[in-house]
Amino acid sequence: MTRLTMDTGSYVDVPKDLLKEIERLEQLFSTDTAKLKQITEHFVKELEKGLSVQGGSIPMNPTWVMSFPTGYETGTYLALDMGGTNLRVCQITLTEQKSEFDIIQSKYRLPEELKTGEADDLFEYIADCLMQFIETHHGDTGRLEKLPLGFTFSYPATQNYIDEGILQRWTKGFDIPGVEGHNVVPMFEAALARRGVPIKLTALINDTTGTLIASAYTDTKMKIGCIFGTGCNAAYMEDCGSIPKLAHLGLPPDTPMAINCEWGAFDNEHKVLPRTPYDIIIDKDSPRPGQQAFEKMIAGLYLGEIFRQIMVDLHDNHDVHIFEGQDISALRKAYSLDSSFLSAIEEDPFENLSETADLFQTKLGIHPNTHELELIRRTAELIGTRAARLSACGVAAISKKKGYTSCHVGADGSVFNKYPHFKARGAQALREILDWPEKTDPKEEDPIEILAAEDGSGVGAALIAALTLERVKKGNMHGILHPENFR
Ligand code: GLC
After folding, report:
1. Which residues face 259 on adjacent strands?
2. Count of CB atoms within 10 A of residue 19's CB?
3. Cα–Cα dist 179/169, whole Å
4. CB of 206 closer than 6 A to ligand 1?
C-alpha cells in the first residue's frame, strides 16, 4: 500500500517542544471520517441552496451547456484559456472519427502586472496573443472567415447567456478594478475589434464545465468535472426541474443544464470546515477576505502559504526552538512558497530528508536540523492530506445529491496532477465518506473513481462551442444573447 503519511513512531528523538508542536498541528489539521461526513452532509444542503431562488453562498451558476456530447461532433474551433498563470490558445478539429480530435496550441505567459492592472490592457494583451496565433497558423487574416471561439474564463461569473459572463468576483490573485459586477464579454470583444481579430465568441465557459464535457466526450461514465489547481471547483449536469432559480424560464424539467458550482465559496459562513489560526490569517490578508473559504484550504495558490505561515509562527514562538539564530527574512515574504515547494518536501525520498534540507538552504537560506526537518515533512503531509480529504467531500456531496453510486469524475489541475499522494488520499477519503468496503483486489475500480480528465479548456471549450452551434441550428435559442454569432 502507498504510504500516505509518516509513521509517527519515528519521532522518538525529537525534542519535546517540537514534538508538542507536531501533535498540536496534527490536531488542528485532522479530518477524521466523522468530520468528513458532517462536511459532506452540509455540502449537499449548500448545493441545493445555491440552486434555489433565495440562493446560498455556493453560486451554482447555470452555464447554458445543455447536453453531453455524443462523440460525433465535428468542425474546427478556437479555444482560449485565461488561467491564473498562462494564456493558452488552441485550434481544435473534431474529426469524423468518434471521440477523436486534432489540436494545435501555443502558450503565452500572462505578465504578473496585468493581473492587477487595467482591464483594457489585459484584454488587449489577450487579443494580441490571439492575433499572433491566427497569423502563425492561417497566414493572411484579411480574407479569413470569422472563427468560432470558446473562451475559458475560470472565475465565478453569472451567465444569463452562454455568450455573457458577469464577473462575480476575482479569484486566484487577480485584482483588476472595474470588472467585478460587469460583463467581461463586451470588454473582450471591444479589444478584438480594436485589433481586428477575426473571431466570433461562441461560448464563455468555466474550466470545470470544459473538463466535464471534454471528459464525457471520450468516456460516457464521466459525470463530474473538477479542477484542483491554482483554484478549486467543480461542474456537473443538473436537470432544469431541480433548479428552482430557473423555473421562470419554463424549460421542461428533464432538460439538462451544466452547473458551474463555484464550490470554492463553500462554508464562507465557517459552519463546518476545520479552520486553523493559519487559515484565518490567510483569509484576513487576502484581497477578498471572507470569500472562497473552501478553496483557501485546498487550492495550489494557498498550500505553500499555509505552510509558510506555520513555519514563521513557530519561529516567532519563544517556547519553540526552530531555526534558532537564523535569518528567516526570505521565509517572511508572503506567498513566496508555492505548492511545488510542498510537493518537493513530500517527495523527498531520503530517510534523512536531505533534499528538503537542500531546498530550505537554496530557496530560503535556512539550515534546518534533523528534527526540524521531520517537523517540516510532517507539516507538509498534514496540509496536503487535509486538502485531498476535504476535496473528496465536494465530490461525495455532488454524487449524493445526484444519487450517483457509480461513476467517473474527471479531474485536472496542478495539484491533482502533480501533488504527491493527492489522488490516493482523496480516494481513501471518498471510501470513508461513502462507506465502501475495503477492496479485495487492489486493481479493482472504486465505485466512484476520480480520474485524470481530458483537456477541458481546449477540447472542452471547442466541444461546447460545437454543441451550442448545433442546438442553435435546431432552434434551441435558450441562453443565446448574440444569435448573429451563431450563423
Ligand atoms: C476558482 C475560480 C473558478 C475555477 C477554479 C478552478 O475557484 O473561481 O471559476 O473553476 O478556480 O480553476
Report:
1. 62, 236
2. 17
3. 8
4. yes
Question: Does residue 169 carry a catalytic annotation?
Answer: yes
Cα separation values, 47 from 135, 158, 422, Å: 44, 16, 24
pLDDT tens per residue, range 256-295? 999 999 999 999 999 999 999 999 999 999 988 999 999 9
pLDDT tens column, 210-221: 999 999 999 999
Supply the pTM of this predicted model: 0.94
Please report, as a single letter, which amino acid is at residue 85.
T
Phi, psi of 160 (to 5 degrees): -70, -20
Distance 52 CA to ligand 1 centre (A): 21
Residues contacting residue 381 through CB under 8 Å, at least 6 positions apart: 5, 6, 346
Residue from 81, 163, 207, 267 carrying the catalytic annotation = 207
Task: Calculate the CA 335 to chain-centre distance.
Answer: 18
